[in-house]
Amino acid sequence: MTEPSINTPRPIAAPVKKRYVELDALRGFAILGIILANYPEFSLWTFRSAEEVAAMPSAGTDHVIRWLQYIFIDGKFYTLFSLLFGIGFSIILNNMREKGLNGKKFFYRRMAVLLLIGFLHLMLLWSGDILMLYALMGMLLPLFSSLSDKKILSFAGFFLALPVISDAVCSLAGISLSEPIYNAWLRKAAEFGITENNMAQYLSDSQSYSDVQNFLIQGSIERMYEFVDSHRYFKVLGLFLIGYVIGRNKIYADLEGNRDFLKKIAIIGLGAGLPLSLIYAAHAMNGCPAGSVFHSFLYLVSVYPTGFGYAAAFCLLFLRFKNARIWKTLAAPGRMACSNYLGQSLFGILLFYGAWLGLGKNASLAMAELIALGVYAFQTGFSLLWLKRYRYGPVEWIWRVLTYGRLIPIRKQD
Questions:
Q1: Is the pLDDT of residue 363 over 80?
Q2: Cα(17)–Cα(23) distance, rounded to whole angstroms?
Q3: CA-to-CA distance for 205 and 209, rounded, in angstroms?
Q4: Helix (H, G, I), strand (E, B), or coil: what is residue 122?
Q5: Backbone phi, psi, residue 308, to 5°
Q6: What is the SS3 assignment for 7-45?
Q7: Per-residue pLDDT tens for 35-67?
Q8: Radius of gyration of the chain from Cα atoms?
Q9: Which of the two ends of the chain, N or C, has the fewest CB atoms closer than 10 A to its terminal CB?
Q10: CA 195, 197, 199, 205: dihedral to nearest 10 degrees?
């Protein structure tokens, strides 16, 4: 079977593939964690000084919530999302192989479009974008696809541990890889009158989208600094590779046959990860007194095991209550994950920035998380209604059209 000419103007039949509810539901669960992780920043709460936070009426409640965030949320859900990305890569290769097409070529086109979507998100909505990094690291995945599972997992372990090694080497050498980008960020921020200490004030006082655009311009450089400073690219690539091995072995397609394996991952991951996450939280909440190297080590031994444990426990619950309605409910926002991720950013700036509703002016952490839950509930309902009529979410459809280079029917009756 040959790939149709990209010059054909007429719509083509949408590619038919089997969907796994458990994967869509896990993605929907991950999107919930993502909004809970991101809305403290959208609400401007994380930009506030310790003195401002302590003076808020909700300070006590917010302190407890912040602890819970570090223990149960921080890094764990982006771990899930990254694993699912790697699994998706394996599914794409398998689907293309079955059709006799070049799966890698298709995947590179898909990543190129994702890179564009991420860039627009970064520059137009939110400087905390992760999609660009996903696209860039995703382009490296085909380089590992011909290796054995053992070699891929070895590379994955190396990449996940590399931030700790890099931090240790830089600490001993007295150098900072991110300092040049940090300085470039401060210079650009200064052009707009933005400093590290007035970000919350700047956005809460913003009068128009032009003010927000200025913040996003300098924020894009800050985002690059954050990626380098936290070695996020190594972390993402390592998780992608683990996800790819999971997908290549189709563990998701035979959860029952892998029940014992899932139990081991859940017990070890949560049994070790959650207690260590408590130490990780204590270290973060007290300003990382033992230094960045120790904090990177705590991240390695707490965040990833907990994230893996979440995934395994989720799959075990799916097996135990396979007919429960909750899975299809979670699957709806999961099938529209990219649309909902971008939608969360749109809701965030409209709700919290001064140019619009301005709720961030006095938002507590508790308020931010309650709003996050409300937005997620709305997105879940919207996704359920949307998918009754349409095959894909709006952004997912645009992504497909640009990837295939031709129109694809979106309505279910087409």
A1: yes
A2: 14
A3: 12
A4: helix
A5: -65, -40
A6: CCCCCCCCCCCCCCHHHHHHHHHHHHHHHHHHHHHHCCH
A7: 999 999 999 999 999 999 999 999 999 999 999
A8: 22
A9: N
A10: -100
